[in-house]
Amino acid sequence: MINEKSGLIIPAKNRLEKLLSGITVYPQIYSLIDKFFNIPRLIDRTNLECLFTRRYQKVLDIGSGKGSMTVFLLKRAEKIVCLDSDKKELEVLKKRFKTKKNRLSFVVGDAKKLPFESNSFDLVFSNCVMEHIEEDEKALAEAARCLKLDGDLIMTFPNKDYEPCWFKKILFNHKFLQFLADPSLKKYFSFKTIKEAEDWFFHYRWQHVRRGYNLAEMRKQLAKYSFEIVDSFYYYGRLLAELWEIITFSWLNKFFPYSLIFFAPLFHLLPKQKGEKEDCLLFAILAKKYEKRNKN
Question: What is the DSSP track for 36-74?
């Protein structure tokens, strides 16, 4: 995969895309692998369960991708509109859920200019999408426009206040140990501070246009569009994050995603409960859309 801004080849993600391209021709096999070996989405599904307090008639899934959250949403909604800017991703999703075509529709579109009428959805959902959008406020404004009054907004975000685990810190501070890292990530150690290194890492590896958000600034940002956060929590805690960073940052990353498949059973055994702010990679919010902005 090529990072549009840096022009760099990302070896680990390139290997992942090649593997997936071979599997996606077999939708049932792909769905099985996605369910058990897509660890980040497994952690999302486990933690987000509590935010779905009712069944929805019509849901907009912004950035649906290949459908890692689609089964999760189908259990909680009658109809789902899957929107993504990548036509190829949606083609994979269509193959996976061709037996559910009466409940799913697929739209190639831009989150900053949604091709839907106002007040169209009971729920707008997005899972770690906003950090990839340059003009994220336009995307939030569009989500608010398309959501019905008293509708729900459920979103997840990377926690920009998260500090890397001991493995990265030890390697960053001790040059003689840096041979343990994946050679393609050598630039990580060229920065003066680990914060600068992390900003680069998330841009280079995951194509974030920003490191992430925190709950306080997201609360303020959503209030501009008549949203009030009614529930929120941080998750993907320290133990899980530590294992994830070892696999995706150390020399094991040279075998990614095969190394992840090997370690997946351990992820299934580790606790996935919510944690403290500074200990967690991600956070989730449930917000309500009201007719008037909350003055508080």
Answer: HH-HHHHHHHHHHGGG--S-EEEEEEET-TT-TTHHHHH
- Over its C-alpha atoms, the chain yields an Rg (Å, rounded) of 19
For the stretch 186-220, pLDDT in tens is 999 999 999 999 999 999 888 899 999 999 999 99
Q: Which of 241, 244, 242, 233 has the alpha carbon at shortest distance from 276? A: 233
Q: How many domains does the chain have?
A: 1
CATH of the domain at 123: 3.40.50.150
H helices present in 232-292, as ranges = 238-249, 258-269
Handedness of CA 8, 129, 30, 268 (dihedral sign): positive
Q: Which domain holds residue 62?
A: 11-289
Q: What single letter denotes the amino acid at residue 198?
A: E
Q: Is residue 294 part of a domain?
A: no
| Residue pLDDT, tens place only, 101-126 | 899 999 999 999 999 999 999 999 99
